[in-house]
């Protein structure tokens, strides 16, 4: 999620500020002049979103582990740090280099997931230029992050209640 800090409409150029957090979480600091990036406008609240909630806040960097063609579709397998894998679910969304896509398969043991690009999408974004070993910026499913946080808070309360019940049961048994 970057903000344009300078716009040059004549030369069709713009500048953005890269905060330290952005540089830590992305590979943007490795880009050179002329490298291609994917740009998407922010979604309007209440507008169509195809069921995907993309904020533009990169969570980490993945590595292209494999890619292959199946008829007119291009498939990718991405290696991801284990800390982000709980938020990657089959048929959930994931943003790859700013493009919102649907996850196909997830292999939690290998810390990998797959997605595919239909022919139309391949012509409109930068991801098809990514080869095995290349880096991709990853934004995981924000709804998954919210759900995970809510379940963790609930789980801690349940565990505390279970400990209290056990303590009370032991007290009653000892009377």
UniProtKB/TrEMBL annotation:
<keyword id="KW-0677">Repeat</keyword>
<dbReference type="GO" id="GO:0004746">
    <property type="term" value="F:riboflavin synthase activity"/>
</dbReference>
<dbReference type="Pfam" id="PF00677">
    <property type="entry name" value="Lum_binding"/>
</dbReference>
<protein>
    <recommendedName>
        <fullName>Riboflavin synthase</fullName>
        <ecNumber>2.5.1.9</ecNumber>
    </recommendedName>
</protein>
<keyword id="KW-0808">Transferase</keyword>
<dbReference type="InterPro" id="IPR001783">
    <property type="entry name" value="Lumazine-bd"/>
</dbReference>
<comment type="function">
    <text>Catalyzes the dismutation of two molecules of 6,7-dimethyl-8-ribityllumazine, resulting in the formation of riboflavin and 5-amino-6-(D-ribitylamino)uracil.</text>
</comment>
<dbReference type="InterPro" id="IPR026017">
    <property type="entry name" value="Lumazine-bd_dom"/>
</dbReference>
<feature type="domain" description="Lumazine-binding">
    <location>
        <begin position="53"/>
        <end position="151"/>
    </location>
</feature>
<dbReference type="InterPro" id="IPR023366">
    <property type="entry name" value="ATP_synth_asu-like_sf"/>
</dbReference>
<dbReference type="GO" id="GO:0009231">
    <property type="term" value="P:riboflavin biosynthetic process"/>
</dbReference>
<dbReference type="InterPro" id="IPR017938">
    <property type="entry name" value="Riboflavin_synthase-like_b-brl"/>
</dbReference>
<comment type="pathway">
    <text>Cofactor biosynthesis; riboflavin biosynthesis; riboflavin from 2-hydroxy-3-oxobutyl phosphate and 5-amino-6-(D-ribitylamino)uracil: step 2/2.</text>
</comment>
<feature type="domain" description="Lumazine-binding">
    <location>
        <begin position="1"/>
        <end position="52"/>
    </location>
</feature>
<keyword id="KW-0686">Riboflavin biosynthesis</keyword>
């Amino acid at each position: 999620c970057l903000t344009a800090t300078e716009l040059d409409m004549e030369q069709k150029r713009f500048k953005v500020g890269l905060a330290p957090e952005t540089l830590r979480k992305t590979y943007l600091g490795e880009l050179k002049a002329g490298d291609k990036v994917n740009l998407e406008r922010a979604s309007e609240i209440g507008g169509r979103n195809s069921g995907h909630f993309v904020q533009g806040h990169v969570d980490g960097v993945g590595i292209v582990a494999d890619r292959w063609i199946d008829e007119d579709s291009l498939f990718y397998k991405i290696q991801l740090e284990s800390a982000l894998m709980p938020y990657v679910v089959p048929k959930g969304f994931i943003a790859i280099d700013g493009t919102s896509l649907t996850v196909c398969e997830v292999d939690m043991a290998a810390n990998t997931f797959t997605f595919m690009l239909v022919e139309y999408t391949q012509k409109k974004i930068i991801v098809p230029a990514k080869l095995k070993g290349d880096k991709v910026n990853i934004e995981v499913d924000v709804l998954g992050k919210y759900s995970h946080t809510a379940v963790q808070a609930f789980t801690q309360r349940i565990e505390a209640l279970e400990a209290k019940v056990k303590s009370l049961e032991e007290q009653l048994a000892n009377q």
